[in-house]
Amino acid sequence: MVQADLVLEGGGVKGIGAVGAVLRLLELGYSFPRIAGTSVGAVVAALAAAGADAGQIRGAMGRLELSRVPDRMSPRLPLISEGLSLLTRNGAYEGDYIRDWLDHELHALGVTTFGDLRREPDGDDGDLHGDQHYKLVVLATDITHGRLLRLPWDYHLFHREPDEQSVADAVRMSMSIPLYFEPQRLTDPVTGDTSVIVDGAVLSNFAVEIFDRTDGQQPRWPTFGVRILPNLPAGMDQVFPALGLPLPPPFELLKKVVVTAFVGNDQTHLNLPAVRNRTIAIDTSEVGITEFDADPDTVQTLVHHAREAVDTFLANRRE
């Protein structure tokens, strides 16, 4: 098998494209010693890191009911539940359904905690410390301390043993789209301090450099990045379709600030040849981040775009 580290961008329902890319790479004989993901990218990354093959990933995704992902709190009434949840929990939806679904799928693959995803540090970057030898890295944002979290690498910041932490909980933290899903909380058992955790995309939605060596040695295999969000400014209204409506000037400015926070930093990186040349960019313009009512034809279109993008990338790739 051909090896490559993989980094998957977040983007809600657009993540169907990431699923398609991973499936195509698996079909072509690739394996992933390490895989990182943000938000929905972390969902796909967790399944792949757990050793799921193409058939198992298809099966898992077939059991995911997209329409249930936006899960309302009690009394589970449209608009009323969302309003109450926003006021009391800072997010319109609970996010429990997808967390529980992922936990079930991972358990079937023999994975519950990050300890199940430890890897032997044979030939790894000499600068890595003991808490960085894992098959999976999940990106989340600690808004209490204003910092990016790379889990399980950064659990030591909370005096937590990485091997004992739930993979599904980490992914749920990573996919806490601000105001859409409830933010999560992570408490330090030693100090008692609690951090509020939201979507990793707030600080790093496409951390394609996360596995780059820093010890001066040549990489053993390449890193591929899978990107599913559009470039700005043309894709401004594709990120959040609801924000595509005409808005008064102050709100139009706010919209651009919000979208740039999710996309702009990573788009700046893409201008670098070293990043652009290892990025598989997928056309996901058919759906927006929160269009969980996407029909089967749209889903298949995204998967088709992903397969084409992978084939084109590999055909044009330079070592």
Automatic annotation (TrEMBL):
Give start-end ranges for motif GXSXG: 37-41
Query: Which InterPro entries does the record associate with it?
Result: Acyl_Trfase/lysoPLipase (IPR016035), Lipid_Hydrolase (IPR052580), PNPLA_dom (IPR002641)
| PNPLA domain sequence ranges | 6-212
The scientific name of the source species is Saccharopolyspora shandongensis
Q: Where are the transmembrane segments?
A: none
Q: Which SUPFAM superfamilies match?
A: FabD/lysophospholipase-like (SSF52151)
A Pfam family in this protein? Answer: Patatin
Residues annotated as catalytic: 39 (nucleophile), 199 (proton acceptor)
| Chain span(s) of sequence motif GXGXXG | 10-15
Q: Does the keyword Transcription apply?
A: no
**GO biological process, alphabetically ordered:** lipid catabolic process
**GO MF, any single term:** hydrolase activity
Q: What is this protein called?
A: NTE family protein
| Keyword entries, A-Z | Hydrolase, Lipid degradation, Lipid metabolism
Indicate yes or no for the key word Membrane: no
The UniProt entry annotates the motif DGA/G at 199-201
